[in-house]
Structures are given as C-alpha cells and as structure tokens.
Amino acid sequence: MYMVAFLGPNASYTHQAARDRFNQDTCVLSPQVTIEDVFQQVQSRVAKFGVVPFENSTNGSVVFTLDLFADIKSRHPDIVVCGEAYVDVHHCLLGRGAARLTDTSLSSKTDSPTSSGQATPTSKVPYPKTPAVKPVVPVKHVKKLYSHPQAWGQCRDFLSTYLKGVERQDVSSTSRAAELVAEDQSGSSAAISSAIAAEVHGLDVLARNIEDSADNKTRFFILKRTDCLEHQPMHRGAKVVDDDQNSFKSLVSFTVNHEDPGSLADSLAVFKSYKLNLTSINTRPSGLVPWNYIFFIEFKGRRENDGATGAVNAALRDLNNVAKCWRWLGSWESEL
Amino acid sequence: MYMVAFLGPNASYTHQAARDRFNQDTCVLSPQVTIEDVFQQVQSRVAKFGVVPFENSTNGSVVFTLDLFADIKSRHPDIVVCGEAYVDVHHCLLGRGAARLTDTSLSSKTDSPTSSGQATPTSKVPYPKTPAVKPVVPVKHVKKLYSHPQAWGQCRDFLSTYLKGVERQDVSSTSRAAELVAEDQSGSSAAISSAIAAEVHGLDVLARNIEDSADNKTRFFILKRTDCLEHQPMHRGAKVVDDDQNSFKSLVSFTVNHEDPGSLADSLAVFKSYKLNLTSINTRPSGLVPWNYIFFIEFKGRRENDGATGAVNAALRDLNNVAKCWRWLGSWESEL
Predict the structure, then answer these.
(1) How far is CA A306 from the centre of its chain?
(2) pLDDT on residue B118
(3) Which burial class, exposed, middle or buried, applies to B277 when counting CB atoms under 10 A from its CB (0-12, 13-18, 19+)?
(4) Span A15-40, mean pLDDT?
(5) Separation of alpha carbons A304 and A300, rounded Å
(6) pLDDT at B124 over 80
(7) Which residues of A touch B278 (CB under 8 A)?
C-alpha cells in the first residue's frame, strides 16, 4: 500500500479526481489541508503521488498551484507532473428539504415571486437568462448560503433567479460549506457543493446541476517525484497507451530577460520550430522583482523516451539559449 | 463636474488610486460595489472615467478585470484603458488598542510566547523568517481576524509570528474588514487593512507595514469610452509628456485557432517584428469552448497619434492575419 496525497477535505472535487484515478485496493488516499501540503507530502516521500487542481474550464488557472510549481524558495525541486484527470463539476444546492424542517414557518410551500423561475429584469441585466434547472424542493426557507468563492460565479443564473439577495458566506472549499450547513440545526442555510458532499454530510439535494455552463470541468494534475520511475498507475477503461507524441503533454516553466524585446516571442518560437503545439500558457509574478514574470507553457509532446535527439529535448536545448532559466515539470499522457 | 467610478468602498486601495490621479475640485469620485459596475458606469456614460485594479506585484492579475475586458457578452464594447496608477500596498493591523479596552482580561500587557518576535519552527518551515516589523501595541487580545483573501498571503511572516492560529474570516475587501471590526464592540477582533481605513472607521493601528515584501504594489487602470477624446486629465507632479513610443503602453486581446500549432507564437512574433516590447501576457478561458483561451498582451507603444503607417497599426494589421480575432483595448502613458 502506498499513499496518495490530495487536496481535501474528503468529498472535495480533488478527492473525486483521486478516486477516479487510483485503485483504493493498493493505495491509501490521504486528504491534505492545502495544495502546498500535497506538494510537500510528495517531495518528502511520505506520499508516492499527489493530486492537485490545476485549472477550471470556466474560472481558469489555480494560481496557488502555479506558484508552487514556480517554487521560488526551492522547496519542491523534485516534483513533476505524471498524469492529469478531468472531473465534471456539477454544483448542487445542499441543505434541509422543507419536509425535514420542524419549524413550519420555514417550510412554506408557496414560492416567493423571486422563485418563479424568472429572474427580475434590471437596468443592468435587461434580459436575464432563465436557468436550465429548477429546485427539486422549495428553497424559500434558505436565508444564508455557503460556498467557495469560485462557485458563485459558476452558478450566476440559478442564484439570481431563485436565491436573489440571500446572504453569502465565502468558505475555503465547497465541502467545508456542506459541513457548516450540516452543523446548522436551524435548517435555514444551504451550501453550493457536490452531490458526494450531500452523502458524506447527510444533507438533502435542494437543486441539482445549478452551474451556468453544462461544460464546467476542472483539470487536476497527478504529481510524483522525478526519481519515481512508476507512471501514474491506473487508467479506468484500460485505454491503450499510444506512443505518438500527440497523445502526451509536457509542462515547462521559464523566465526571460525583461530588458530584451521579443525574448518571450523567441522562447515560444522555439517550440513552434520543432512543431510542438502549445496547449496553454500561464503567467505569474516572478516573486523576485516586481513586474517580472515566470511563464508556464504546456505543449504536445513527451520528454521521457524522447532520447537526446528527440524534438522535446532539442527544443529545451534551444530554449536554454533564449530564456533566462527554465525547468521541465513533467510529461504525461493526455486525457482529453 | 464629471463622475469617476471606482471599485469601492471608500478607503479601498482603488479609492486611493483614484484620489491620486483625479483632482476632486473638478470631479466626483463614486464608489461602486463591483468591478463590473465600474465598467458599466463608464460604458453607459454615467461616469466619464473608471478606476479598476489590474494586477498586484505579489499576487498577479485580477481575473475579474481580465474577464470584463474579454467581454464575451459584448456588454462593454466601448471601454478602453487611458491611464494607469501604481499604489504602494502597505497593510496594517487595525483594531482596538489595549488601552481603549474596558475588559481588562483582554488588555494583558505580558506578551504570549508566540508574540516573541520569533515564529515557531515547524517541520514544514524549519527556518521561519522573522518579520521586519513588530506590533506597536500588544496584540494578544486579538481573537479573530478579518481581511480580503489576498491579504493573508501577503502578510504570512507577521501573522505566523504574532497571530499564529487566530481564526480568520474572509471578507470582500480590506475596507469591509475594517468596517466589521469597527462594529465589533468587544474589541477582540482586528482587520488587515489600510492606514486610510483606520482613519475612516476610527480604529487604532496595532501594527504598520506588516506585508512580507516591502515592494508590494497594485497597478490600477483608468478606463474611458473610446469616443471620449480627453486623456486621463491629471498627473500629480506635472510630468512632461514625452512622445517617445517607449513612454506609452498598449493593451490588446486576441484569440487564436487552437488547431493551428504555433499560432500563439506567430501572434507574438508580429509584435517582435515591429520592435514592440511585450511587457505582460495574460490568459483566460475563452468562455466559449472549454480549454480555448483568450490572450491579453501589453506592449510598449501607442496607437493614438501613431497614424496608419505607425508600428502599432502595422502590427495590428499583421495580427489580423494570424489571430482569429483581436481587440485594441487602449494606449496610455506608462507610469513606471
């Protein structure tokens, strides 16, 4: 049995990614409080693998994860990405259904005008979208909402239609939101969280799939140490591993000389010259000098098995001539 | 008198940027609840100018502002940047000084061991940094902290030394944090906020400049409508306006054909070929197709007065051949 560290708590979306990608007969999934804890558990060899969120299709990159890869204090020099996982993020409204409430004043079955399924037009939003879903039980008794800050922006249509003006409390994760609602005996609070969290915390699903975009997904990275020779071991569905460069992705970080016009363009041109298609680029403050940046690029291709003469190694040699410094952060099989 | 909309509330860092850059004898500064409200006030001509945060030197870009520039619903088609402002972000710990507390149990003058000025070494942080500053009054009575989520990460050394383990509550702005602490009659809560907020809300400064990096700055953009011909009117210090391209910056957004390897590299190469130095690049989800992106680049140079034959217009014509679509988002005088 080996350990896999993931960003907890239990029932988080990262937990779901870890459960999808690791066979729990052969490993122990260990929830961590922060993304940095996951990096440190892997760096220090306590865990063999780690699972961290990297980007959401609606909200973009997870900057905490990028900053840990930037690693300006050199705390995780041996961490590389060895796999990815995509999880559909379907938010639910979790709370106490009206039938379970003892206080009848909270269990009114007559909907308020704002629960009509029509958002109120305002001068700012003259033609509000009608959300695709309706609550499965009335939600008029909900007086306070808990969730992770990212979730509000993903459920705008539902919230503006059925829970307009209800007080919102930011918390550290959607699972924590469910936990707080479970502790609230009044039954008048609700969480935007996952269906799994409803099971774990014994809550009712008041509404399902309340996200604005049905395509809402989060991408997770599987981490290991560079000296760990195992690949991320399990694929549900026993996908055939294809050795074509296009079925792999690689991540590289680099900094440029900010005095040199075009050094970023030159760095990206290197990958083009070896026909390595860029799939994402991210920028973060360098952490050293204000308004200097570190860049992260992902591209199609694989360094392992690539050999000293392969395209990825050749591109990295050229990058060495135009970038100030760079770091290879892993190659893995694409799941997209 | 014209109106300048800024991201409020009063005493926010954006307010400070607006006060630095606009003469209040000739305009009214109007606080807005969200960054989107600032865009809309300018788009609808209610305000002539707007002030919004764009990036912090420690924490990076403000994604809400980027997404409003991406403008996928075409709600702010006429907004351009016409100026920038840099504000030093010096966080203070605000609360009630022990001398003002009536409950003597909270006003102990003996510091606890965790207030020794030495953080406790842990296995994770074996050599903690000693913060550069000490509280001006004892802070042992502080049992709860309020701040904007960005501030915790900017004050890590101070918090881990003097306020280790104290409960933290995220709120929507550092000014809102000060307001909540002002309302708390017990005197046992404190806010990480600005010195201005201490004045506005009648709080004591318990510690000054508690940020980890003395270089902590936030950059703000001044917005106007494209059809507003005035430049952002006021410069404190009556800087001489130099018409050299290098004293101006421009912002452009563009999307690329994701099927075409190298299209991002080609788009950036356009600017290099006209010797327009890139100063920043940002990426956000396109909002249309998952894992497709919109890019934002800033470069040295000015489109206004550039004429049809100038370098910026020439680069934009070439960009038109390699990018899927693009939008010019303004040129302004660099303040750096």
Answers:
(1) 29
(2) 47
(3) buried
(4) 92
(5) 13
(6) no
(7) 261-262, 264-265
Give the residue from A168, A211, A278 with the most B CB atoms within 10 Å of its CB, the best one to mutate: A278
Nearest-CA distance B194 → chain A (Å): 20
Catalogue all structural domains in chain A, each as residue range(s) with its CATH number. Answer: 1-89+216-228 (3.40.190.10), 92-207 (3.40.190.10), 241-336 (3.30.70.260)
Which chain B residue lies closest to A276 (C-alpha atoms)? B261
Nearest CB among B57, B266, B300 relative to A285 is that of B57
Side-chain-side CA neighbours of B202 within 13 Å: the count stands at 6
Measuring CA to CA, how many Å separate B327 from each of A171, B71, B316, B331? 36, 10, 9, 12
Q: Counting every residue, how long is chain A?
A: 336
Residue type, B259: E
Inform me whether the pLDDT recorded for B103 exceeds 70: no
- Comparing alpha-carbon positions, the chain B residue that sits nearest to A147 is B170
Integer Cα distance of B169 and A170 in angstroms = 9
Two tokens, residue A213: 């975009």
**Residue-level pLDDT at B57:** 87
Q: Name the residue facing A261 among B215, B272, B285 (closest C-beta).
A: B272
Strand locations in B202-324, DSSP E?
Answer: 204-207, 217-225, 248-255, 278-285, 293-300
Percent of chain B clearing pLDDT 90 (strictly above): 50
Going by pLDDT thresholds of 50, 70 and 90, the confidence category of residue B72 is confident
Q: How far apart are CA B12 and CA B315, in angstroms?
A: 38
Q: What confidence tens digit (pLDDT) does each residue in B227-261 have?
A: 988 776 665 444 545 556 678 999 999 999 877 77
Which residue among B56, B170, B217 places its CB closest to the CB of A170?
B170
Q: Is the peptide bond before A9 cis (omega within 30 degrees of 0)?
A: yes
Amino acid letter, B177: A
Contact B290 A61 (CB under 8 A): no
Per-residue pLDDT tens digits for B164-194: 888 888 777 888 899 999 999 999 999 999 9
**What distance in Å separates residue B279's CA from the closest CA in chain A?**
8
Q: Say what the alpha-carbon torsion angle B133, B139, B142, B147 is, to the nearest 10 degrees.
A: -20
Token digits of residue B299:
């470069």
Q: Give the residues across from B250 on adjacent strands.
A: B299, B331
Q: Cβ separation of A272 and B290 shorter than 8 Å?
A: no
Using an 8 Å Cβ cutoff, are A86 and A217 in contact?
A: yes
Question: Quick one: pLDDT at residue A104?
Answer: 43
Interchain proximity A262–B283, CB inside 8 Å: no
Q: Is the pLDDT of residue A183 over 50?
A: yes
C-alpha radius of gyration, chain B, whole number: 23
Average pLDDT over residues A140-156: 87
